[in-house]
Amino acid sequence: MAGIRGLNGWRWIFIIEGLITVVAAIVAKFFIADWPHEAKFLTSQEKDLLCRRLNEDLGEAKMDHWNAKSARRTWRDWKVYIGTLMYFGVVITGYSTSFFTPTILQELGWMAQHAQVMSIPIYIAATIVALIVAIATDSLKHRYSFTMLGVLVATVGYILLLAQHSLNVGVRYFAVYLVTCGGYITQPVTIAWVANNMAGHYKRSVSSAVQIGLGNLGGIVASNIYLSSQAPAYPIGYGVSIACLWLCGLSCTAFLGGLWLENRKRDTGKRNDRFQLPPEELENLGDDHPNFRFSY
Asked: pTM value?
């Protein structure tokens, strides 16, 4: 398509990929329901079953009213900020691959258009890995180990890229697969893990917005660490990326430790004083409710 409408072939690749995304989003608007009872593709019995399961999942830990007390509980919750660091650390890897992947592919002798097309298998592989991990982490009802698995896989990829002067291009291409797949393992799990441990409609909404909104500032970091003057070695880019990746790993470990300690306090009755709160406040505590238990 190079030359059509006066545009280069690589521009048409971006246009086509972008149009597919836009069209899919418009179509999805009419199929994705905001709430179970609004899902037109479910029968009445299925809607009731899903609503019942959601209520059973939260139990007494609800936050259906946004007021001064629930706002303070939300903004003072350490999990919101550790969760943001988790996401910030790994999202840099997600953005980074778009910067160094074309350079490595062009070193294989491919022109810009060919290099762009050959990046597709990398993301197909990462998508498959992400889906497998999604099924596994839900089946096992466990998150932490999967976040660290992704960190380790991507770390191996970064180490190979940092040592690329002694490696052939094929190995560097394989390293891109490791980095991308590692990021695709960890990034979605951090979002799900934080959401799992935020009970109540309002608190979960605010925490997810903060985590993703502030966490995506990692894109600013990623866009400034891959200096064209350092291509294709990118020592600063790879070094900062691996450091931030382990910021994610350490934050996930701190998150795990904090959840475990809080569960122990609740198991030993150290949060039972909250049962003495007024009924309207007790029923709006979210995950601060003493009967709520955090998942790992």
From this structure: 0.84
